[in-house]
Amino acid sequence: MKSENYILETVVCSSRSGTDARLHRMLSTRQLLRRRIDGCLHAWVSRSSDGTGMFLVQAIYQDREAIKKAAAQIEEKLDKHDGGIESLLGGPPLIGYFDLDKDDVTILISNNDES
Fold it and tell me: What is the DSSP pairing of strand 94-101 with strand 54-61?
């Protein structure tokens, strides 16, 4: 039976001193790759509005398999080549997964298309 929910992956992280711009570039690159993964509906990264080097990284997936595919692709195509983001972080990231009602996501996307 198909799930009635999508999954929202949410990561909150902060940069180590002096690595803000590089971390932002690397997070953005990872979100671009996620968007190309079958099963990822959308992915984005946002910088904190107060300039503290904190980032909100989110993606909406159809299911857990899509999350696994995205993680594997990022490790294979990016982490192996650029060393990953861990050395740029000011501490451990906060990571959560949340259920999103598919109807709510459909309404959000259609409202966004109309504007």
Answer: unpaired
- Rounded to whole angstroms, how far apart are CA atoms 19 and 87? 9
Closest CA to 82 of 11, 21, 9, 25: 25
Q: How far, in Å, CA of 82 to CA of 57, rounded?
A: 19
* Among candidate residues 21, 102, 22, the one with its CA nearest the CA of residue 60: 102
Backbone angles phi, psi at 94, to 5 degrees: -95, 120
Into which CATH architecture does domain 5-114 fall? 2-Layer Sandwich (3.30)
pTM higher than 0.85, yes or no? yes
In this structure, are residues 102 and 28 in contact, taking their beta carbons and an 8 Å threshold?
no
Model pLDDT for residues 20-34, shown as the tens digit of each residue = 999 999 999 999 999
- The ranges assigned to domains in the chain are 5-114
Nearest 5°: phi and psi at 73? -65, -40
